[in-house]
Structure formats: structure tokens, C-alpha cells
């Protein structure tokens, strides 16, 4: 269960309270406040707090650039200009704080984005719950033959059953031993900070993750991409929906120029110009490596 009855009662209590404020408020984000959106089998994302909206981005930009923005007629046009030309500081004026419940191996990948403030649930002080991420059958895949960090064909039949049985039994056994090592029934037991080392990487942890919009967009560009690992991508895709409700103009520009756009190298641009001029360009005449050419062809398609 992603949210315990106690947590749900706390969420409902928090959502019942509303206060007048003079600060910028996003109606779309207000609907997400405190609500737990389920992810994977036991995970969730919920918004704890936020600051700013689309207008805050424009306000910051006009302070920074002054009269240089007078030719931009509206907020949407200004935001699209900022996104198109890779301006970052105006987007840093918006911040959001998430409460995320996620498997440890996803957290270790997530934490590589070092531009956020993080406070994680401590297994030194508390005992982790008996909750593990077990992939759905359609998420069990063999190693890709063309990508060292990707997945290939989905496992089926006896092979899928064998893997699922091992994942379940190993996680259960590790947690059983974790509990047995802790102090109980009059035994001294092992300190929590040591016993936790026996837990598997698919056990769930939780953290508060606070980030500004510029760095959140960078995270989403990488993790909501089709090439990202599925287990972190589903969190990023849900965050995309939340951000879209929070700052619709900024998210629309992000979707156009980052998620839906392509960036070409100098060699790629040279090939593209040759193609537009009617020349037939092949891998052999492109001057690119095999990997670059494969990505270039994929972008054009």
C-alpha cells in the first residue's frame, strides 16, 4: 500500500485547511497539494509546497533584462523566448517541494541530479517497512544487445516466473534477517544503522526533494525521455503532469523546445543542410560515428 491509513488521514486533514494569502498562487498546483499520486507498486509523489507561477518567471526576466524585453508582447511569448534561448535564472524563481516514496535503486539514480535539496528517511533512526519493488511481468526484460544500459525483449513463461520467484524470495529473506538482527525479545541485536546494510536495493525509501523549476526541467528532460529507465521514468512522467498544471505556459515551452525538440551537432547540421540541398547523405559520407549516425537518423524520423 503506497499510503498508510494514518498518512491518508493526515493528507485529508491538511487538504481541508485553507488560508488567505497574498503570495502568488497556482490554481492547478493547489489541486495537487498534499495529494498522494501512486507510482509503481508501493511508491507515490505528493506536492508539499511550492513557490511562484508563470507570472513569477516573467517578473524575474523583466527585472533582469529591463527594457530589452519590451518588444515581447505577452507572458507566453516571453517565456517561450527564454526557453528557446536557454535562459535559466528566471525559471529558478519557481520552486517546488515533493515528498517521494521510491525504491532505493531508483533513489541512487535520482540523487545524481545534485541541484536539489534532499532530506531522506533515515534507517539509522527508524525501521524500514517491509515493502519492495517487484516489477510487473511486462517490465521484466533481458539485457539489450545494442545498448549496454538498456532493456531488450520481455521475458516470458518459465524464465519470467523464475526471475519473479527469485526477486520475491530474496527480498523476503533479506528483510526477515534484517528484522532478526534488530534488538528484540531481550536480545541486544544489531544497531539499526548496521542492520540496514542487509536490505536489498528494491526496498522502498522516502525523501523530501526541493528543486527550482530550471533544474526540475533538466531532470524531466533526461528522466521523462523514452530512453530513461522505466522505473524512474514513471515518476518523471507524473511530475510532468504536475508541472503542467502548475506553470502551464512554461511547461508548454519546455514541451516544445526540450521534450519535443532535437539538438544537432555541427556535423549533424552540416549533413542536414546537405540533405536539404538535395544531396544523398549516407553514414559513409556523414563523417559521424555509428552511434552518432544512428541517433541522427532517429531524430529525423
Give structural notes.
The chain is an alpha+beta fold. It folds into three domains: 1-133 and 202-261, Gyrase A, domain 2 (2-Layer Sandwich); 138-199, no CATH class; 264-301, no CATH class. It is built from 13 helices and seven strands. It has a five-stranded antiparallel β-sheet with strand order 1-2-3-7-4. Strands 5-6 form a two-stranded antiparallel ribbon. The relative contact order is 0.14. The mean pLDDT is 91.
Poorly predicted runs: none
Number of strands: 7
CATH topology of the largest domain: Gyrase A, domain 2
3D shape = flat
- From N to C, what is the helix and strand string? HHEEHHEHEEEHHEHHHHHH
How is this fold's topology laid out?
Layout (H helix, E strand, L loop, with lengths): L4 H12 L10 H4 L6 E3 L3 E9 L2 H12 L9 H10 L10 E9 H7 L6 E4 L20 E3 L7 E4 L2 H25 L10 H4 L8 E9 H11 L6 H17 L1 H12 L6 H11 L6 H4 L3 H11 L1
Helix pairs in contact: 3-4, 4-10, 9-10
